Amino acid sequence: MAGEFGAVLRRLREKAGLTQDELERRSGVSVSTIRGLETGKRGNPRMTTVRQLADALALRSGDREELLGAAVPGRRGDGADEAEASAPEGGAEHPGAAQAGTAQAGTAQAGAAQAGERAVAPPAAPPPASAVRAAPAEAAEQLAKAVAARWQREEEQRRVQDPYPLPVRWKAARESLTDHWANIRRLPPGAPSGPLDLSGRLEGIAETYRSIPSGRLVVLGRSGSGKTVLTLRFVLDHLRSRTPAEPVPVIFSIGAWDPTAVTLRDWLTEQLTRDHPGTAAPGPGKVSLASALVDSGRVLPVLDGFDEMADGLRRPALEALNATTLPLVLTSRPAEYAAAVEETDVLTSAAPIELTDLTLDDLDHYLPRTTRKTDRSDPAAGAWQPVLKRLREPSPDGSPAPLATVLTTPLMVALARTVYSDTPEHDPAELLDTERFPGVRELEEHLLDNFLPTVYRRSRPGERGRDPERVQRWLGHLARHLTELRTPDLAWWRLGHGLRSSTRTLVTALVTALVIGLVDGAMSAAFSGSLTGGVLDGTVVGLLAGLLFGLVHWFTYTATGKDVQPSAVRLRIRGRPRSTKWRAGSRLVIGTLGGAFFGSAYGFMAGLLRALSVHAAPASALETGLVDAIVFGLVFGGATGLSFCLLGLLETPLDIVSAVSPGSVLRADRRTVLIQLCFWAPVFGAAVGLGAGVVVDLLQGHLGRLVMDPLSSLMLGTISGLGGALGYTLTLTAWGQWCLLARVWLPLTGRLPWAVAAFLDDAYQRGVLRQAGAVYQFRHARLQSRLAQGRRRG
Q1: Would you give the DSSP letter of residue 215?
Q2: pTM of the prediction?
Q3: In 47-127, where does DSSP find H-type helix?
Q4: Is the pLDDT at 160 greater than 60, yes or no?
Q5: What percent of the chain has pLDDT over 90?
Q6: How confident is the model at residue 526 (pLDDT cuts 50, 70, 90)?
């Protein structure tokens, strides 16, 4: 039936005068899915997808019935229809869509039975629950467990429930930022429509979202108003009451997205793979599980930080979001969102809400419960009661006190709690000093500037306190690094990007040359027994290897603007899953070509230098270099291709439910690289040593007289194995770049401490940083901005 459905879909699309791209924009179904359905490569289309396509084509009743009938094979039972209705493909719908899909599927099935189907051979019996759908469905459930566990830990780390969550409230945003209510409520043309009551509190955010038929919500709030905590609570509450038919809410920091360079779906796939490496495993249709989850609508994007995008990217980002019908949650400051709306349009079918300020009653209930009891005669008394009492007193001019204005946002309340409630020697009464703090700006800067000294004066168990001035310098470098990269994500594998690209490549080449030169010199001296010969050979080989590996690093990453990403696989010999697939073709080609290029360049330069060192004629030296280029190109090309292929046999995908944090990703990548190093060195060395003898025998006489004695083969294989493994590790792996730049160069130049990983984890434990999957982020954009400004002034 897939072929019949594809033919019907293509005919109706062409009848409507739409291209596949235009149909994607109207329906929200990806163009790859439409193309697969029309060509028959995608079988058994889901009813939610069929309904989206039918709605986008604006089909009349007869054409709609024909499309639905072609999509539903007559011999399938109602259970299969229900399974399809509960697993959307081209974009998730509101929770009630599953029941509607079942009803429509039954109608289409009855219509197909009455009209009679074409005489076609009965399709082969599909596997139970359809293996094509089972993999993403199972992965979605595992993803839900991983997301819930992660954000539960993060909520505990942020002390959101200590002693209880601040009362974040919201109201409906102004009409100029709101789409037509008929679009939000998904009403048919002509149906009466009215606004929804969207007011609520933090504990009801999941219910508020479910009350929006379009499944699209925009959360607006000024800086520090609690948007990030609201998204965290939404994810946890939504997962707690989620049904298998609903998508999994996943938080994405949209400030890191460049809509002019990558599409929304591709970016969501990349971020999902980064934060959940297990989703990099192969899924149905030769795509990754992450791509299958995004394309099938099993992920509900919670896009946090629209206001953190660069000014020129918000308009194309909003246009890209409007080009899809994906359900989503978007957070932003009101001014930035309003400016983007002014340039283009509101977010289609989205209901916006705006967070409101905290009140003095909220502060009366919250702040006194965060301090120690100091007055034995009155156990309920604390340092905040006199301050809060003063804030209720009217001012001479009738305007609110600056402190009352500052403490209307959860961020400033949290900073005030850290500086004064958690530090008994500090008295919050000083915040009422209008001579010292004449306005709101001075008070906010005071709280921001005193946050770091406060949290770093306290020693954590088993550790000494850190010098706040040095900490502020290191964190200021990181804040400026993120500001220059225009991203809120502090990724350990990108710490070196704070350097200029030329500096980064030069440091990589020099350190690689030094390491390989030392290894080559020591091994050459051991084999030859001559220290002078070892030093000379190590110097030549080190310089050549540094130059070549530096060029490889430049062309692979620097020139293309790509990042050295952590490995999304692990290496296992035993207990490998049967579903693991190994594709050797691409590895063989890339490894062979790369090895041949490196070997040819190395052979030519080594042969040329060796001939010139014995005062050979220029023509003879050139001939020697060309002969060595051919020999070493063949040897290194074959050895590299073979090693890459064998290495692929050991790779298996990570588990989706495995805990992911910056530290765990770093440790996993280090473990994978070290295993690769231990595997690469002997395998590559043996392949080079044996291959050299084989190539010399095969080319003997064709290129003149070639000499390769067993000792030379052994020395070549040993040095090549160690040098090649070290060069690959330092220049082409994320952990190698981390060691070079973050552990050596940046601490050497005073930008970061020597124990970088421990410093970042300590900052997270103290509440300066937060974890967002595989990366860190500053606790708040205001804190990052303040630190970056201080670093520039310094």
Answers
A1: -
A2: 0.74
A3: 47-57, 61-71, 78-85, 97-115
A4: yes
A5: 31
A6: confident
* Vertex 702: Cα angle to 696 and 707 (nearest 5): 35
Q: What is the mean pLDDT of residues 695-724?
A: 76
- 62 φ/ψ angles, rounded to the nearest 5 degrees: -65, -50
Token couple for 292: 């299958």
Query: What is the DSSP track for 478-527?
Result: HHHHHHHHT-S-B-GGGGGGGS-HHHHHHHHHHHHHHHHHHHHHHHHHHH
pLDDT (tens digit per residue) in 645-691? 777 666 766 666 565 788 888 888 888 888 888 887 888 888 888 87
**Which 3 state secondary structure label does DSSP give 643?**
helix
DSSP assignments along 226-251, one per residue: SHHHHHHHHHHHHHHT--TTSPEEEE
Our measurement of the distance from residue 527's CA atom to the centroid of its chain's CA atoms, rounded to an integer in Å, reads: 48
pLDDT in tens, 76-98: 333 333 333 333 333 333 433 33
The span from the CA of 599 to the CA of 364, in Å, is 73
Query: What confidence score (pLDDT) does residue 381 get?
Result: 63
Residues 200 and 170 sit within 8 Å (Cβ to Cβ): yes
Q: Sign of the C-alpha dihedral, residues 409, 460, 473, 490?
A: negative
Residue 509 corresponds to which amino acid?
A
As a whole number of angstroms, the distance between CA 32 and CA 34 comes to: 5
* Spatial contact of 54 and 68, defined as CB atoms under 8 Å apart: yes
| 352 neighbors 178 (Cβ within 8 angstroms) | yes
Starting from the edge strand earliest in sequence, which strands make up the sheet with 351-355, in order?
200-201, 169-172, 351-355, 216-220, 328-332, 299-304, 248-253
What distance in Å separates the CA atoms of residue 168 and residue 219, rounded to the nearest whole number?
Answer: 12
Report helix, strand or coil for 375.
coil
